[in-house]
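Standup notes, structure subgroup. Blocker cleared on the adenosine-5'-diphosphate input:
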Amino acid sequence: MADTEAVRKERGVDMILGCIADDFTGATDLANNLVRAGMRAVQTIGVPAADEAIDADAVVVALKSRTAPVDDAVRASLAAARWLRTHGARQIYFKVCSTFDSTAQGNIGPVAEALGAALDAGLAIVTPAFPENGRTVFKGHLFVGELLLSDSPMRDHPLTPMTDANLVRVLQAQCRSAQVGLVDHRVVARGAAAVRERIEALRREGKTFAIADAVSDDDLRTLALATRDAVLVVAGSGLAIGIPALHGMAPRDEASQLPPPQGACAIVSGSCSAATNAQVAAFIAAGGAAFAIDALRIAAGEDQAAQALAWARSRLGASPVLVYATAAPATVRDVQSRLGAQRAGALVEDTLARVAEGLVAAGVGQLLVAGGETSGACVQRLGITQLRIGPQIDPGVPWCHAAAQRLHLALKSGNFGGHDFFQRAFTLLR
Ligand code: ADP
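Run returned:
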């Protein structure tokens, strides 16, 4: 991937940041942070066509690669990087989950290794820290609120159970040949120059990646400054808060304005996180209309999507209807032991995606989807390729607008949002 300065000038575009997100809600979360800090950001669903030009300071390419087979994830990420570099991106930001969601096979390690090699990146820092959302990294260990990652509800995730909080060890185990070091909090506290020195020392030792500690927004700003000229960074959405200011940009309202909302309101939820379980319970307790999808009944051949849509049609209006597969960890384990985790996940995702498609066809114009994988399935099914990022509902979750579909859409990562998120979200749009 050669120098693209000439290409950038010739095309008259000036993209600063090219981002590759390993899931859809993560992409939105990152774009949201960039918009809040004053960058004009466009999120694309998958890699855009070769000749498509996008006028934005940052383009976030959303992939569905977090739990894809390793080779597929690597191939898609390299294609995204190629498009972004060809269209002028000076820095590639590989966006991973703030809880480092991955399996023993990857995909964070293999994708980061492939990007690093393709971009000739030297040493890249890796940090999922996002203190505003309670994700901090200390001595290489990831904390979720007060808990170590491995003690948090993430240990029960249906697809990517996280049972080790030591990210140096987690990332090292996923890498084929790269060595992983640590930029610890004492170095970060001494500022960007100290971080650069440490990065250089680790590079000389033969390291390719360094987990970087960050326990505050200031730490993230230090890391962003230290890596301003790095061609590759690997991070959660947190690091993004420090990047726009490095390019002379400041927060501004126009960056998040969307067209007025129209149509009925609906929620589709496939996340089984602790936060989403609480949000579903609060929605039902407040009298919200809700239809439960049962994975075992799908597996037995029932068309649960058709049943949900038949139920929803007469209820569509300004009050949101909820269709959910969200279940407690014990129920999910039981379903998985009967169907297998992958098959259960795929069946539920397919059903919820068909529900989302049917709801939009029936007049839903404001749709909230809970769950990263679930969002990916829904967005793909709806044929959405570009999203403009709007106002934030809760940290990490903005309303977006898909112009071609005339649809307002919010994609909520499982762990995000307060307990009354489902009720509050639609009020914000009005
Ligand atoms: P999160 O953002 O919380 O990780 P995801 O949508 O990414 O949510 O992942 C949740 C996964 O669990 C999806 O693959 C979904 O289809 C699956 N799932 C949802 N409900 C159930 C259920 N009741 N039993 C088994 N798997 C389920």
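Discussed briefly. Residues 5-254 form a domain with the Rossmann fold fold (CATH 3.40.50.10840).
Next: hand off to the docking folks.
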